[in-house]
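FAQ: What does the model actually see?

It sees only this:
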Amino acid sequence: MASPSAADDDPGRGPDTHAGWLRAVAEEVRSFDRSSTAERVAELLRHRVIEGDLPPGHRLSEEQLVDVLHVSRNTLREAFRLLTHEGLLVHRLHRGVFVPELDEDDLVDLYRLRRTIECDVVRRLHGLDPVRLRPLHDDVAAGEDAARRGDWVAAGTANMRFHQHLVALAGSRRIDETAARLLAELRLAFHSVGAPQRLHEPYVGRNRALLDLLVAGETDRAAKELEDYLHDSEAELLAAFRDRSRRTP
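And it is asked to produce this:
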């Protein structure tokens, strides 16, 4: 995995630019008891990555998080260690803990795993109770609403949730945990796209079409559509990575 950028040193990115994510953490922490483990803290921070609140290059402050989470430094450092192992954080000597950037090899590997997991889940959804599709209906509606408002960051978040809920249809805790880590890494790649509308707009309608196939019980067609969808998404992101590389001196 590529090393983190020096975005934290960018004078255009002040200390309060991303402070909103700390408020979100403070709200979420109220929902779990103070004896929660490092795994629960790691889950909370992973969720903030999936939501798009922690971009590549962002430095995580121990002081701020200990205060917001009401946990010990040892617990927080163990959570950092878990997320570092997952590739969602990286420790830089004498500088602290940062959100890393992905490179092209990371992206190709992520999409290989996405196709393996997501397409297999969809192929096996025979006889699915339509009630279980309700979260996907909500996610598709949220993405369509965000697109109408021109809020492409929110559209990206709705897309992440759609794929999380899609994988959750397998009813496997291990698949859910793997997909959560995978999608969190993928969200880091989304930050590399200078024009998020370019990335997310085509998939608002494609999510709706995929959901319609699932509602109709056409799981084989849905799996084929999803495979094509993921190939196209990978190609878009790779093109964005290469455009960025050409623009970077």
